[in-house]
Amino acid sequence: MMAAWVALAAGPAEAQRGELRLRATAAGGIVASRDQWRALAFDLPVAEADVRVGWAPEGPLALEARLSGGAFFSESLSVGGLMDLTVGGEVSGDLGIGRAYVAAFVGAGVTGDLVRPVLRASLGLDLRAADDLDLGPVLMYGHLFQLDGPEQSDDAQWLALGLSIAVTPVSSPPAPDPPPASPPRPAARPRPRAALLPPMPPSDDAARGRQHRRPRARRRALITQHGAPQALHRSVKRILLPRPHPGPALLAPRPLPRALP
Q1: Does the structure show a pLDDT above 70 at 30?
Q2: Residue 138 sits in the same domain as residue 227
């Protein structure tokens, strides 16, 4: 019983996944840089989302392109926005309960009328939900670089925690080889006719029938030889007198009646 539960918990064998992968993430967080927090009053939560397309061959390394967007809320200012396009890579490893990964991306981001370099990093855990679907938590870090100068703000930095969903199409397994064709059946050979059986010996019943017929033939011979009265006398004597026994006689023999002339 325990082995059956273990087999159910393990689930079916892992299917062969393809090399392309699509990942989407939604997260919420806070601004971490002091200048953005105090001077620009971005002291409310941050909401962001991203979509990643990656090439993930067999092994721990994957290459990805990422499109991200975020909204930075403030009590006194209008909502700040950021849109960036980055490229990078991901390194992953199997932990038994899931696959942990670390990813880093660099690119350019647009905020207002400014274009600035962007650095993004993420740390996550993918849990298998289906043969082609993973989902799990992810912690993300973002960094928007600013120019140095007396009238420039510090670099913007933020942290966000969210949920990531990854879809990896499963490659169809090769079709099994067709079963080998069965060899042709040999043509049926004509069966030889049964040989004629030798004549059967007469059965016991037939022998007994011939023994029963012998007394009749004897009576006919007696009638022909001695006449009807003498033949009748001999038949009665044969019936009445006991037949000789090989053992000792139990009774004294009776005198035979005189034969009729």
Answers
A1: yes
A2: no
